[in-house]
């Protein structure tokens, strides 16, 4: 069974490209899921130098989103967006599998 692909929105891709260029790194965003956070799991974002062997890779506007196979099971079908609001700017994951979330949007439960 193939997991649902992840989607990186154009606004998120643009933000990753900007951050990567400032740090002279490839435009590759790694999304991982870790235990913890207010709802059981939390999202972790980082720039990657390249994909690992078991990564799922999706691409938008030349920017890659990579996710390891363990994390992918928890976030398959998600959309990664970059949202700017009065409260600040942040990457946001819209996860159709999340049964519970938290106010900060950084963690979720299944």
Automatic annotation (TrEMBL):
Residue ranges constituting the Core domain according to the UniProt record: 7-105
Gene3D superfamilies: HesB-like domain (2.60.300.12)
Pfam families: Fe-S_biosyn
InterPro entries reported for this sequence: ATAP, ATAP_core_dom, FeS_cluster_insertion_CS, HesB-like_dom_sf
Gene Ontology biological process: iron-sulfur cluster assembly
Top-rank lineage group of the source organism: Bacteria
Gene Ontology terms, MF aspect: 2 iron, 2 sulfur cluster binding; 4 iron, 4 sulfur cluster binding; iron ion binding
Stated name of the protein: Iron-sulfur cluster assembly accessory protein
């Amino acid at each position: 069974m193939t997991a649902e692909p992840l989607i990186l929105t154009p606004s998120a891709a643009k933000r990753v490209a900007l951050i990567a260029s400032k740090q002279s790194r490839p435009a590759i965003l790694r999304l991982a899921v870790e235990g913890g956070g207010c709802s059981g799991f939390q999202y972790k974002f980082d720039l990657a130098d390249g994909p690992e062997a078991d990564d799922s890779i999706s691409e938008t506007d030349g920017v890659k989103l990579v996710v390891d196979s363990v994390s992918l099971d928890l976030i398959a079908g998600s959309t990664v967006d970059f949202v700017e609001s009065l409260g600040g700017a942040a990457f946001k994951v819209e996860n159709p599998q999340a049964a519970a979330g938290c106010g900060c949007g950084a963690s979720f439960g299944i």
